[in-house]
Amino acid sequence: MSIQITSAFDGGNIRVLSIxxxxxxxxxxxxHQSDFYQWFYFRVAGGDAATLRITNAGGSAYPDxxxxxxxxxxxxxxxxxxxxxxxxxxxxxxxxxxxxxxxxFAYFAPYPVERHNQLIADYAARPGFAHRELGTSLDGxxxxxxxxxxxxxxxxxxxxxxxxxxxxEWWMEGALEMLADxxxxxTAALLGTCTFHIVPNxxxxxxxxxxxxxxxxxxxxxxxxHTPSAERSPEVLVVRNAMDETGVDVAMDVHGxxxxxxxxxxxxxxxxxWTDALGDKFYRxxxxxxxxxxxxxxxxxxxKSAPGEANLSMSTNQLAxxxxxxxxxxxMPFKDHDANPDPEAGWSGERSKKLAQACLETLAGLIDTF
Length: 370
Prior knowledge:
alpha+beta, Immunoglobulin-like, Aminopeptidase, seven-stranded mixed β-sheet, metallocarboxypeptidase activity, Cytosolic_carboxypeptidase, zinc ion binding
């Protein structure tokens, strides 16, 4: 019996071109109404050994992300492990030895919309947390928002503007776990100093549809923060409106990066109202986080914008300019954090959760100076 392949489920993405013997020729589907594609997630049934070949990998949004990358595989959808993977002549290829009746392959450990729904249900019912639906996406899904804490400092944490960056919502799960642990002295101090505003998934439509980077209309939400609209980007519009209600002192936009094998932060250099005093607070946070965990570093990252040239359509720049916030983008890898690698799992959902806790511990040590 030959293998069978499907991606007809929450977050799934693959197109089967052919199955010949034990070799499947595949391609990743584009985000709807967009040229972006890179996220994949599919199931193989049959139990046989197979060679899987994604033939359009070379035309993906970030082909520089494939060299050194390893596909994630799971036979139970809970534990995800790396599979030896090659990339040559625009084709991403790996071999599965078989032996399990079902196996799932993904670009990174998925964080399905259903898991998000359970996360929201759990925390909406927890003492000390409050839930509000800020609005709905273009497909009618809820933009869920949680708050906790009673302090004057307004801290916003938001993730998955780019839905294929599933490590971002694993990070959010870790942050929520720590903020719920009121027996932890660090958590208790943070909740007394700060009010946390948390949007675990900014793009539920793209998450469900199996998109890499865009919403249901093919719009990159992290290029909408200057002029969001109900027609193109209601997800950004309702979140930015809520930020206008509360103000923003500290903000972290959580993402994943395809090419750089490291965790790093991007700041708001180049905004019109840049001051060295505000920038120094961001740099102190980055340095303190690097000192706190081997899963973060400051050497690798994105180039800084020149003075006056920041892109204000991106949330980190917009919030720093709009509110004078200590605003930052956290990037985590699809590959591994090479400074502290895990050969079996690579960068993972569990490690993303632990990094969230390190970020909050670092914030606790600096918040009085912010």
